[in-house]
Amino acid sequence: MRLHAALASLAIALVCACSVGAQPAGAPLSTRLTHALASKYVPLSQTGAIAVDLESGGVVYAHLSTTPFVPASNEKLPVSWAALVRLGPAYRFHTELYGVGTRVGATWQGDLVLKGFGDPTLTSVDLAGLAGQIARAGIREVSGRVRGDESYYDRVRDAPGWKQGFVPIESPPLSALVVDRALGWPALSPPLLAAKALTAALTKAGVQVEGRPGLGIAPSTATPLAEDRSQTLANVLRYMNHESDNFTAEMLLKQLGAVSGTEGSTAAGARAVLAALAETGVPTAGLVIADGSGLSSFDRLTPASIVDIIHAAWLSQALRQPFIRSLAVASISGTMRHRLPQLKGLVRAKTGTTDLATALSGLIGNRYAFAVLENGSPVAYWAARIAQDRFVTLLADAG
């Protein structure tokens, strides 16, 4: 597997080197960049690209840069930016365990309700921590049952424009309460699966639960008994963008809707993202945020809007590091670990590939921000990636 990846990287590097070397002698940079993007398999009419000087903000190159394209996983960039703006890099997701009833000695007379607040990183280890808090509080028996509460989000398990089968192949089912990415049965009822997992964790911690796991909603009068908090948003984003994790992006989009004061839904999150972009000064005309991951065929971004986001992050003292560090590094990490070996460590970027689109957007050192979006029905993704790498290599050489 590693040999195959290495050979693929070498092939791309050789194609990039040969193609860049074949540029017209003395031609302007814009002409050479267009030549680098040209491919008989992905027409320039289905390619949008832009490069901007980070210091001056000046446009170095633009081709169909304000045309909306299907962005694939570059959709995660506006979601990342909106999350940093609205929540802050130190934000942590939380999960609460409530008691409904009354404690009598070492017995909780009533139910326990595990309420999720959208943590995409919640695991069985975290539930063991919650169970340990209950045991350390001296509770040894629960007369009722453990109930899973997913009411912080809606109950829609996928997003608009997704193909049938994307759940669970491309993403676990969406819910405000998901443990271990909904591995197990019943996977399509994440809150019930979570209630089962917590019941098992309590039993292991020495707390007997009389009833079977179920579903429910914690009433406002419920007693807080235990709490779990996630790692920081900055770390969550780093995993999400390095590995292009669809589930985390979708949960984060719903979280933005929930914290905006409307509802924990994809549509509410989309409105929050567009509002954050508009406040940043990113033109939103033609943009469609249909989901958070880029799996949706309805998504539309422009190359210019992506570069505007990257440039805004670069200019922000508070958000530059968490945003930029969330991007994969050429020939080192994430989805870029096998790309651009000749530019190892110099390029940080977000990749993206679906049947309809392939994309590459990011930074070249501290000199340029760039975005390349290519579409097709289906898109010739291999040829598109080669063109993207040619483009970035030439731009890096020019800088």
Quickly list its features.
Beta-lactamase; 7-stranded mixed sheet; disordered N terminus; 399 residues; elongated; D-tyrosyl-trna(Tyr) Deacylase, Chain: A; alpha/beta; 13 strands; 37% helix; 6-stranded antiparallel sheet
Describe the protein's architecture and organization.
The protein has twelve helices and 13 strands. The chain is of the alpha/beta class and 399 residues long. It has two domains: 2-89 and 235-398, Beta-lactamase (3-Layer(aba) Sandwich); 92-230, D-Ala-D-Ala carboxypeptidase C, peptidase S13 (D-tyrosyl-trna(Tyr) Deacylase, Chain: A, 3-Layer(bba) Sandwich), CATH 3.50.80. α4 links the parallel β4 (107-116) and β5 (141-142). α3 packs antiparallel against α7 (233-243) and α3 (76-87) packs across α9. Residues 1-21 have low confidence and may be disordered.
Give the gist of this structure:
By secondary structure, this protein is an alpha/beta fold.
Topology:
Elements: H1 2-21, H2 29-37, E1 47-53, E2 59-63, H3 76-87, E3 92-104, E4 107-116, H4 124-136, E5 141-142, E6 146-149, H5 166-169, H6 190-204, E7 208-209, E8 214-215, E9 223-232, H7 233-243, H8 246-259, H9 266-280, H10 303-315, H11 320-324, E10 328-329, E11 347-353, E12 357-364, E13 368-375, H12 381-398
Parallel strand pairs: 4-5, 4-6, 5-7, 6-8
Antiparallel strand pairs: 1-2, 1-13, 3-4, 3-9, 10-11, 11-12, 12-13
Helix pairs in contact: 1-12, 2-12, 3-7, 3-8, 3-9, 4-6, 8-9
